[in-house]
Design goal:
Length: 298
């Protein structure tokens, strides 16, 4: 059954004022409009709801029985309207889902969580696998993900984005690598075995696209999902790994590895934050975007 929720506002006003004229004045409506709404309510409830006694409208037992629920429902609607215009991170229990390029998760997620723990202790954050570029717009539009962090990709006008930083690719190898004694040249880079970190099961990495433009190709001997696993492997092997510089520096602080510049000049990596236009003014999404931007600037 469809029912106009405004009728319950009229119901509450009549119950509160005990008079149709006073209820109309309180609601800034005409008396006939309030009487018409009361008529609809009587039809819905199949009850008089209010009985005239002198100048007063006295509630029937049915009206007395439902008034508490009506007022609670109206209160909840008002709360929803207020919350749609503001966001209280300290008390919110909202769930957010992020999509991150695999090699960026270890860099950005700890920074974001560090800023959320004290300010928003009840918020739940989920980092999902990187969404395919072809699915990015649909996932953001449907709300399956709230934000995405990835390299610069072509998107429609429905997807908004801002640059978090510009990174560059570097090469990671074990300390005292026997084949890298006087720096890393292109021939050595191409001769050595490589680990490719990718959330996809097939396809080249970003660096392979760039290398192919130069007419050269590297030898990928291992493909894995996580940069940490790859770094631990190279510690005990002569394999090398190509990573964004920000991620490489983080692992360098943790593990016994060395960082070398790429032996050939490649385009920089523009890291962007993506969201859908339909949540651009949503207070919760806007708050999380700002937290991510501030975390990335540290």
């Amino acid at each position: 059954m469809k029912i106009d929720l405004n009728l319950f506002v009229v119901f509450d006003a009549i119950y509160c004022e005990g008079n149709i004229t006073k209820a109309a004045s309180m609601l800034n409506l005409s008396q006939p409009a309030v009487s018409h709404s009361l008529g609809k309510l009587r039809t819905y409830f199949d009850d008089a709801l209010f009985i005239r006694q002198g100048n007063e409208m006295r509630p029937t037992p049915v009206a007395k029985n439902v008034i508490a629920d009506v007022r609670e429902a109206l209160h909840q609607l008002r709360v929803c309207l207020v919350q749609s215009r503001q966001f209280e991170p300290m008390t919110s229990r909202k769930h957010f889902t992020l999509s991150l390029l695999g090699s960026l998760e270890a860099t950005y997620l700890p920074l974001l969580m560090q800023s959320l723990i004290d300010e928003s202790p009840h918020i739940n954050l989920k980092s999902s696998r990187r969404v395919r570029r072809s699915e990015l717009e649909n996932k953001l539009a449907s709300g399956d993900i709230d934000l995405a962090i990835d390299t610069l990709v072509p998107v429609s006008n429905n997807i908004l984005h801002t640059q978090l930083e510009q990174d560059q690719l570097v090469v990671v190898a074990r300390n005292n690598h026997p084949d890298i004694t006087q720096g890393l040249d292109l021939k050595t880079y191409l001769d050595l075995e490589h680990i490719l970190v990718s959330s996809r099961s097939t396809g080249p990495g970003l660096e392979d696209f760039e290398l192919s433009r130069l007419g050269v190709h590297r030898k990928i001997s291992l493909r894995c999902q996580h940069a940490l696993a790859a770094c631990r492997i190279i510690i005990n092997s002569n394999m090398i790994l190509t990573l964004p510089k920000t991620a490489a520096k983080m692992y360098n602080d943790m593990l016994d590895i060395s960082i070398f510049p790429m032996p050939v000049e490649l385009s920089g990596l523009d890291i962007h934050l993506y969201w859908h236009a339909n949540v651009d003014k949503d207070p919760a999404n806007k708050w999380l975007r700002n937290k991510m931007i501030m975390a990335a600037s540290k």
